[in-house]
Amino acid sequence: MRLSKASSLFLVAATCAEAATTIIPNTSFNSQSAFDAEWSYNYPWGTDHNGAARMDQSQVGLSGGVLTLTATPKSGLGGSLKYLSGAIHSKDKFTVAKGGGYDFTGEFKATTTKGTWPAFWLNAASGWPPEIDMAEWKGSGKISFNTFNTSSSVTAKDVNYPSPGNFHSIKCEIRDVNGKDISVKFYLDGSLVTTQYGGDYIGKAQYLIINLQMEGSSGSPGPTGNTQYQVRNLQAVSYNP
Ligand SMILES: *[C@@H]1O[C@H](CO)[C@@H](O)[C@H](O)[C@H]1NC(C)=O
Ligand SMILES: *[C@@H]1O[C@H](CO)[C@@H](O)[C@H](O)[C@H]1NC(C)=O
């Protein structure tokens, strides 16, 4: 049967609409029960990583649909640890399938003060890489977008980050390119900033992580008072077939 042009267009539109599946709804910070359905506390591997903050559930707050992570100076933690701070990671793992991809969107109020290292990133659920830094702020006044092939093969883009005291929207579009590699489009406040490519990402699971690390790559000393990092309207949508 030969379809009329109008019904062909209708079928294309219906197919595209059906392909989008919400994985994390933009209401996950609206209540503790909505949060618990989507998120776990700390990093997938525990409380410590690559800076001076130890993560603790007490530093994670929810109010009015806003997630607030607070870093607080604390002595007696041992080693080079100087702060208690907050991290959360998704219960879901994100695996780009052949012909598919994801959109991650949200609004972020992130500090660029020396010694503060807020981040919004995807990290390999087992082994490493893949890693996509959908946004990180390394205490320099800039925002950074990075895609790793290996520790020495990384595409990195740093751009100026205006008015860190305001919320800014971030969108990261990840898509299959050739059944093996992915493209990543990074948007800040609705404008495309850069497009990067990751090799061999198809079929590899990643966790979504939101954390406020301190010092490490963001310099030291960090602040002597509390630091906050806030996120709202976070959403993850799958385009996997
Ligand atoms: C949240 O998601 C719903 C359904 O996808 C959408 O209608 C609504 O506009 C979104 N709200 C915000 C603030 O993005
Ligand atoms: C990573 O791999 C992809 C796919 O092969 C490639 O397009 C990209 O240029 C590589 N990145 C770097 C930094 O070499």
Summarize the structure in words.
By secondary structure, the protein is mainly beta. It has one domain (23-238): Jelly Rolls (Sandwich), CATH 2.60.120.200. The chain has two helices and 17 strands. Strands 1, 3, 4, 5, 6, 8, 13, 14, 15 and 17 form a ten-stranded mixed β-sheet that branches. A hairpin with a 2-residue loop joins strand 14 and strand 15. It is globular and about 50 Å long. The protein binds 2-acetamido-2-deoxy-beta-D-glucopyranose (2 copies).
Flag low-confidence runs: 1-18
**Ligands, ions, cofactors:** 2-acetamido-2-deoxy-beta-D-glucopyranose
Rg, nearest Å: 19 Å
Query: Number of helical runs?
Result: 2
Largest sheet features: 10 strands, mixed
Please provide the ordered H/E string of secondary-structure elements.
Answer: HEHEEEEEEEEEEEEEEEE
Structural class, by secondary structure, is mainly beta
Q: How many angstroms separate the termini? A: 26 Å
Number of strands: 17
User: Please, how many domains?
Assistant: 1
What integer is the average pLDDT? 94
CATH class: Mainly Beta
| Helix proportion range | under 10%
Q: Could you name the CATH topology?
A: Jelly Rolls
Query: What's the CATH architecture name?
Result: Sandwich
Provide the β-strand percentage band. Answer: over 45%
